[in-house]
Structures are given as structure tokens and as C-alpha cells.
Design brief:
The protein is α/β, with parallel strands linked by helices. The protein folds into three domains: 110 residues, Rossmann fold (3-Layer(aba) Sandwich); 140 residues, D-amino Acid Aminotransferase, Chain A, domain 1 (2-Layer Sandwich), CATH 3.30.470; 40 residues, no CATH class. A six-stranded antiparallel sheet has the order 13-12-9-10-11-14. It has a five-stranded parallel sheet with strand order 3-2-1-4-5, with helices on both faces. Strands 7-6-8 form a three-stranded antiparallel sheet, covered by helices on one side. It starts with a strand and ends with a strand.
Length: 331
């Protein structure tokens, strides 16, 4: 398929949410990813278009930017822009099936999706489904419960949305009774899953997948803080975990092999237990761009968008030797 025009469909900054209801950090993360991707694509031989909420500053490094007014239906505009493009690059959270719905829209319009397929998004967007997939294939992951089958033993426990992105609405309690009280008080007994708190270094793997194969872009440390029981994400140190490159690469390859619909950029969140022989546990799989993407050009010495495009469109593409520079990303 000849690709001439790419539509970058970024959900958060393009009017998908009412920004008055959004945490400032989420808007900052979305803007960071979008701007980095547009910059990387701008040096490639494609016509790049995107859309933005008319109340926000329009991005640079694109040929066309459609402003979406507050009274307009963003989905109608996204559909019309998808129809004009050859390929679509979607940046959206998994929350409420948003990433999956946009991907389905692009597929229905017969466009090449520069990202994961619907089946992979459906599984990895849900914590329980991801847990069962990884557990059944022998990949170490965190036990995940609904409130109905939670053993409720002593110790630290996390509650997080079964269908959500990042640290959104994720809480940690030292007493299981306190966690149960929080879930009931905040009406989260149906929407949230429960996991034992895993000690170790929070990290992530940035990689590119295609048809069951994976190439690692970087091995990152995640900056996660806890305040008033609420977890929050403050950024990452791209390649802060580069000493674990080989181990992370093995995990990425295993995940790519068991879920072959994972394509394009994929982020894998892991915990490295440095007190227990550096045991690695998979936390979740992000079938989309993550904020670490913004540091990849400097970290690798390559254009990450070009690497992804070449991987998805050239069956015999040979990856270059990547640099492993350390780059800090703050949000």
C-alpha cells in the first residue's frame, strides 16, 4: 500500500474529553506524545494532518490541523479526516474502549492503522484479560482479582480500573479494610480490580512489534509517586534500565509471540524486584504510544517514527544499531 497522507488522531487534545474535567497531567502527557510524533513524522515524506480542540493552541509540524469547535461532534470530524488519509496513527487512552473504538473506525474506513489491531487492544485494555492471557502462557504477572474473588489477606493492596490507562484512579492501602471502604465509598466495586502491591523498581519497555516479533527501543525507569493513597505518574528516565536490555528483550519477544495482533509501538510496564534476583513481573501492556516515546529520538539516535513506519511497511526492514542514551522525561 502506497502511503502519502497520515492522519494523527490524538483523542485528549482534540476535544474527546471536556478539558475542564481532566487532570492537567493527562493533557500534558497527551500533548507531549502528539508533539513528539508530529515532529518525527514531519521529516518523513508524508503529508501529515491532525485535529485539535479549538480552545487549545494548535500544534506545529503538521501540514493540516483541523480545529474542532466545542459544539461540533469530534467523532464526525475524525471520521471525515480518516477518510481523507491513507493511514491513521491513533493516540488515545484505553479508558472506556476509546482506543479500540477509534481503531475500529479506521478499520471500517479501510485505512492502514499504524498501531495495534482491535483484538490486541481488546485484551490489553482490560487488566483481567491481560492477567489471564499472561498467566496462561507462563509469563510472570501480578495476580488480579475482582472484589468477588479477592482473598483479602493482610498486606498492601492496589485498586485500579479494569479498563483504564496509567495511574488514573489507582490507589494503594496498607490495610485491606481501608481499600474495601474506599471502593464502596467511591462506587468502584464494579469498575476496579485489586492487586497485591509488588515491591521493586517500576519500569517499562518501549518496543515495536509486528506479526509476532519485537524490537526493543528503550528500557525505562518510571517515576511514580504516592500521595494520600493515590498513585501518580511524573515521567520516565528513558533507558534508565538499559542494563536490563537483554532481559527486557526476552519479555517483549514472549509477549509479541502470544499476541500477534500487537503491532507498531507498544509499551510494557514491569516491576523489577532488585531484592529478589532482579525478578521481572509484567504489570500491564499499553497498545499505544506512551510518554517515553518523547525521549526516543535522543535516546536511540534514530527517528522512532521512521523505525516504526519501516517495520510496519517493509517486510525485510533491517533495524539499525540503536544508541542507549539516558533521557529524562517529566510531565
Amino acid at each position: 500500500m502506497l502511503i502519502k497522507k497520515i492522519f494523527v488522531c490524538e483523542f485528549v487534545t482534540a476535544g474527546g474529553f471536556n478539558h475542564a474535567d481532566l487532570p492537567a497531567g493527562l493533557i500534558a502527557e497527551a500533548t507531549l506524545m502528539r508533539n513528539a510524533l508530529l515532529y518525527d513524522l514531519s521529516s518523513l515524506p508524508y503529508t501529515i494532518s491532525t485535529a485539535v480542540d479549538a480552545r487549545l493552541e494548535p500544534p506545529e509540524h503538521c501540514h493540516t490541523c483541523v480545529a474542532i469547535d466545542v459544539n461540533e461532534d469530534a467523532w464526525d470530524i475524525w471520521k471525515s479526516q480518516i477518510q481523507l488519509a491513507d493511514a491513521v496513527w491513533i493516540i488515545a487512552p484505553e479508558t472506556d474502549g476509546l482506543l479500540r473504538k477509534l481503531t475500529e473506525l479506521a478499520v471500517q474506513e479501510g485505512k492502514l492503522v499504524l498501531g495495534c489491531g482491535v483484538d490486541a487492544i481488546h485484551i490489553t485494555s482490560e487488566k483481567l484479560a491481560t492477567y489471564f492471557m499472561l498467566q496462561q502462557t507462563g509469563i510472570r504477572t501480578i495476580p488480579t482479582y475482582t472484589i468477588k474473588n479477592w482473598p483479602k489477606t493482610a498486606g498492601q493492596w492496589l485498586a485500579k480500573p479494569n479498563n483504564g490507562a496509567g495511574c488514573d484512579e489507582t490507589v494503594l492501602f496498607d490495610d485491606p479494610d481501608d481499600l474495601l471502604h474506599w471502593m464502596k465509598q467511591n462506587n468502584k466495586t464494579e469498575s476496579h480490580v485489586i492487586q497485591p502491591y509488588q515491591q521493586g523498581v517500576p519500569a517499562s519497555i518501549s518496543c515495536v512489534m509486528q506479526q509476532g516479533r519485537a524490537q526493543v527501543l528503550s528500557c525505562n525507569t518510571q517515576m511514580i509517586s504516592i500521595e494520600s493513597n493515590q498513585l501518580s505518574y511524573a515521567g520516565s528516565e528513558v533507558n534508565g534500565m538499559r542494563d536490563f536490555w537483554h532481559e527486557f528483550e526476552l519479555f517483549a519477544q514472549k509477549i509479541a509471540a502470544i499476541c500477534t495482533d500487537l503491532n507498531g509501538y507498544v509499551g510494557i510496564d514491569v516491576i523489577v524486584d532488585t531484592q529478589n534476583d532482579n525478578q521481572i513481573t509484567v504489570v500491564e501492556i499499553n497498545p499505544r504510544l506512551t510518554t517515553s516515546y518523547a525521549g526516543l529520538a535522543e535516546a536511540t539516535g534514530e527517528n522512532p517514527a521512521e523505525l516504526i513506519m519501516n517495520t510496519l511497511t517493509q517486510p525485510d526492514f533491517i533495524w539499525p544499531e540503536l544508541q542507549r542514551n539516558i533521557v529524562s522525561i517529566h510531565v
